[in-house]
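Q: Here's a chain of 155 amino acids. Please give me its 3D structure as tokens.
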Amino acid sequence: MDISGSASDSIKPRTLPTCSFLDPAIAGAKHGPTDIARVASAIKGLAPELCWRLKASGDPVFANGYANADILGSVPEALEQRDDVRIGLSLMAPGITYPDHSHPPEEVYLALSRGFWRHEAGAWHEPGLGGIFYNPRGITHAMRSSCEPFLAIWC
């Protein structure tokens, strides 16, 4: 794939154990609303180029059940280098919880599969396939998959 401003040639596509859930998550998204099905097809096309990364964790279940891939951004693994925006994918195996965390940037998620989000110690919320979830900057938040794989785009 020839993308202007793409990551250096030293960064190669990489899959992780969690990536075995990407195709089932994409297949589920293709049964959703037309726009979500189109996004899922686009992700399927990008998948061979993605460099999936682990999230540092002392929990081996989480570490082996979660992966991130940057499409746009300033991290070296991003498909296109950009300093003004960061867009990527989160993928989780069934039954995984991304623990409470916070960070300075705000973020928006587009759910491409069933998944649950929560702010602070509030109740879990499922926006549904094609739903959007917003995390204001600095808020403590978490997400988790259901009995299905979880796939979301974040920005």
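Q: Can you summarize the key feature?
A: The radius of gyration is 15 Å.
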